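Lesson 9: reading folded outputs for more than one chain in a single document. The general rule is that every protein is listed as its sequence immediately followed by its structure tokens, and records are never interleaved. Here is the first one.
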Amino acid sequence: MRGTTRPGPRRPCLTIAVCAVLLTVTIGHSLPKLKAQSNPAASQIPDLAGIWDGSTSVRPPNGKTVPWTKANFPELNERALAYMKVFDEPLSPKYDCQPATPPAIEYDPYMTEIVQWPDRVLFRYEKDDQLRTVWLDGRQPTVHDWGIQGFSVGRYEGTALIVETTHFVFDITGFDDYNYIPSSQQKKVTERYWREGNELRATVTVEDPMFLRKPASYTTRWLPAPKGYKLQSFECDPETARLSVQFIPPRYK
């Protein structure tokens, strides 16, 4: 019977057990190295989070020549000029509480809050109670993502956050409600955010071949909001907003 003893099957079990221990030890020694490699990447992400003051105490009030000046005023095609010519102020959708959109909402004189998560950045605007989500996870817009604020994707480049927004719907004042410049479904807005000391800065560039002959851009800044500040509700009421239209002198009679 001794000749029939088979110790062989136990050896693979012993080998597997030893390999498991060695693998555990190897992984255990590797984990700190992997963690150390991931930390520097995270530390390179610019700290843009917080509530930022974009009021008129920080920058000039927006209007027909601000932030657009002679130096950076958009070069419009005939289609855009025709829209501007026939536009009348009471037609503005803001009197029906339609929110402002890029590239105008970034310059409106209100507070803005930025929240940074691993897979997204959130922009909360006091103006019109708007929330924009900038996706960092590589997702792409679908046919269901057309909207007044478009669809935003972003990435970090060095010490800056780059945001690209497409999939806007047509908006009669989607470029600028001070100059009555519309925007189309072809509008693309690119934003670059970075810190300069205590300031948050951004360059906003808009492309729209339907109305613009070439891209137009402006650069602006925000300062930290007062300590403890909370965003205030805009609370636009369409009925109340529309009341003011009766006091606007009509352009056409």
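And here is the second record, again sequence then tokens.
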Amino acid sequence: MAQNLIYQIDSLYTNQKVVIWCSNIHTFSRRYSKAYRPMGAYIKEKYADASYMLNFTSFAREDSKGNLVDKPGKFAVENVFHRRNLPYFMIDLRGLSVNTFLKDEFVSNLNQGIDEEKAWTHYIDGIFYIDINQNPTYPEE
């Protein structure tokens, strides 16, 4: 997957900005485990700071009855974000002060809704937070 993407960037989109939309663990810019090296790690190795790994997270989502489900554990940073009462925002982890707790290890469900404690700045460059994920609505045909 990464080799194919690098080929396309270098040959089809030379000197152009490219957005690659993938999710969760695929965006991680370093090895997640001994057994798994995400696509983002290959991209970061090849393009360094010319690449930007943006990951998405949220506090919860609404089920079909409007109930909040899939909430994070009580120690997850998404709880702090939720208390801000903002529908969405982005945090550029590259531009943070060294004194912020976000530079240290903290619990987040950035990886597929699984609460994990990591130094997330080692894996991603930014967080896009959506407070409550809504069920999609479709136009009537």
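What the second record shows: Strands lie at 54-62, 68-69, 88-92, 106-111, 114-118, 126-133.
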